[in-house]
Amino acid sequence: MAVKRGDARRAVVVGGGITGLAACYRLITESRKRGVPLDVKLLEASERTGGVIRTSKQDGYIIEHGPDAFISTKPWAKALCEELGIGDKLIGTNPKQRRSFILHKGALHPVPEGFYLMAPASFLPFVKSPIFTWRGKLRMALDLCIPRRRHGEEESVEHFVKRRLGTEAFTRMAQPMIGGVYTGDAKHLSLKATLPQFLEMEQAHGSIIKALIRRKKQSKAEITGTSGPRYSLFLTLEPGMQTLVDALVGRLPPDSIQLGAEASRIEQPANREGWRVHLNNQETIDTDIVCLALPATRAASLTTTFAPDLSVLLASIPYASSAAVNLAFHRKQIEHPLNGTGFVVPATEGRSILGCTFSSVKFTGRAPTDEVLLRAFVGGALQPNQLLQSESDLVACVLKDLRETLGIRGEPTLSIVSHHRHAMAQYHAGHMDKAATIKAQAGRLRGLALAGNAYHGIGIPDCIHSGEQAAYTLLEYLETV
Fold first, then answer.
1. What is this structure's pTM?
2. Is there a contact between 173 and 115 (Cβ–Cβ < 8 Å)?
3. Which of 287, 323, 367, 428 could be a cystine partner for 12, CB 3.0 to 4.6 Å?
4. CA angle 240, 246, 252 (to 5 degrees)
5. CB 255: neighbour CB atoms within 10 A?
């Protein structure tokens, strides 16, 4: 039977990444506000919390093993930092170096000023850029007169960019830019699920270029003077992203986190409402509510006995793996001026790396004076076999590419490889409908909620929001029983 009102209820959050931590924290803070006594337990299969977010410090370097920043236009991460009292540690990207590069025919070229992912908002920088041929530039200009699409099947990112802007716009700019964000294959990524703003631009303005030019006029400071992503919108924490994880953990009761606790099975007991969580060490936990803050594939394995249709849907969401390779050098070892935040690599270049961030340029305090910290990315949906190599071979491949693109001499003073296996959900065609069906089916499971990057956004703010929304949903359920 359900716990009587006034008695302590119990909540279990399965998964100790940023989503699970946010869900756990919000369950505790919101239950106190509502006067609902709640005992919260967070179960994490590994020996640390934070998931892909991890910062280490070595020899004066601040090394991000996972994401190094989050976007501020989605408010949930920034708001949480401020609530946790670490808002004063937030810093933006280097205001003097807010441009990025594209590798084209073996050389690095600045992304034209005002160019946003797939299309230009400024005429002259685009026309002068050697990245595109005149034929490619003229084809992109046709976006100004191609009629908007009124109806039809859901489009992939690749199909949309080629339809509106042409093949060069896709292969030389959109593919590496968007692929770098999602570590995905744009041939399969759903435009509606990943970049709905461009779909809205087409419908509202009839042209992506017209929409970007209009947006530039409305918010000139936001785009002018930058290239590639709008770097002024990215924030990090001065001591590293681990600060957010540590702040969340510090706000949880000391005995609320159980590490090395892998959930092996979840069931609904026959004699009471609620859930029973079985752990791999044979321990069982009875709880009133449970949040599965896990990759969809893991959530699928835990829901198969009591929600087989939901389990099948969850298991059908694909994931990509990647690795980040942090490398440190003396500044004199690198010929390139490093006058930007990094570069991305089109698949047509045939390189091992997807891109490289100039970490010590992008954010202050990441390396000692006269030292450089670089972070290269490999793998993703397009090059999964790269991750089958040993770490030494992986570093060797990365070094080969960086030597040829940045003019690096000698060996790195430090190299660290961080693998992220099956960490990035891939939003393929039909994802939005699938996510809606998952939400509806999960909503029929009383006292259970799903959260994570598999449903409505892959970034840190999205994950935090997902965890918080799951907490609110579960608390609303508790108030009705």
1. 0.93
2. yes
3. 287
4. 160
5. 8
CA distance 326 to 413: 11
Residue 346, CB half-sphere, CA atoms under 13 Å: how many? 25
Give the tokens for residue 223.
């785009």
248 backbone dihedrals φ, ψ, rounded to 5°: -65, -50
User: Does the CA dihedral 75-219-113-371 come out positive or negative?
Assistant: negative
Return phi, psi of residue 106, to 5°.
85, -5
Q: In the structure encoding, which two tokens stand for residue 466, read together?
A: 């997902």
What is the per-residue pLDDT across 79-135, written as a single tens digit (0 to 9) for each? Answer: 999 999 999 999 999 988 888 999 999 999 999 988 888 988 888 989 999 999 999
Query: CA-CA distance, 117 to 98, in Å (whole number)?
Result: 15
For 169-190, give the DSSP string: HIIIIIHHHHHHHH-S-TTTBB
Calpha distance 380→319 (Å, rounded): 9
* Beta carbons of 166 and 136 less than 8 angstroms apart: yes
As a whole number of angstroms, the distance between CA 335 and CA 314 comes to 48
Q: Which structure tokens are listed for 219?
A: 């918010």
Q: Which residues pair with 116 in a beta bridge?
A: 119
Q: What single-letter DSSP state applies at residue 6? A: T
In whole angstroms, give the CA distance from residue 182 to residue 318: 12
Q: How many C-beta atoms surround the C-beta of residue 209 within 10 A?
A: 22
Tokens at 342, concatenated = 């990094």
Bridge partner list, 319: 425
pLDDT digits 0-9 by tens, 17-53? 999 999 999 999 999 999 999 999 999 999 999 999 9
Contacts of 247 (CB under 8 A, 6+ apart): 81, 84, 85, 86
- Which residue pairs, CB below 8 angstroms and at least 24 apart, start in 246-253? 247/81, 247/84, 247/85, 247/86, 248/18, 248/21, 248/22, 248/24, 248/25, 248/84, 249/21, 249/49, 251/25, 251/28, 251/84, 252/21, 252/24, 252/25, 252/28, 252/40, 252/42, 253/28, 253/40
| 125, burial (CB in 10 Å: exposed 0-12, middle 13-18, buried 19+) | middle
- The pLDDT tens digits for 222-266 are 444 444 445 568 999 999 999 999 999 999 998 999 999 999 999
User: For residue 332, what are the CA distances in angstroms to 336, 337, 366, 407?
Assistant: 10, 10, 17, 11
Residues near 218 by beta carbon (within 8 Å), at least 6 away in sequence: none
Residue 451 CA to residue 464 CA, distance in Å, equals: 9
Distance CA 448, CA 473 (A): 9
- Does 3 score more than 60 pLDDT? no
336 phi-psi bin (left φ>0, alpha ψ -120 to 50, beta other): beta
Q: 3-class DSSP state for residue 439?
A: helix
Nearest to 97 by CA among 88, 108, 78, 110: 110
Return the number of other C-beta atoms located less than 10 Å from residue 138's C-beta.
11
| Both tokens assigned to 34 | 């509502």
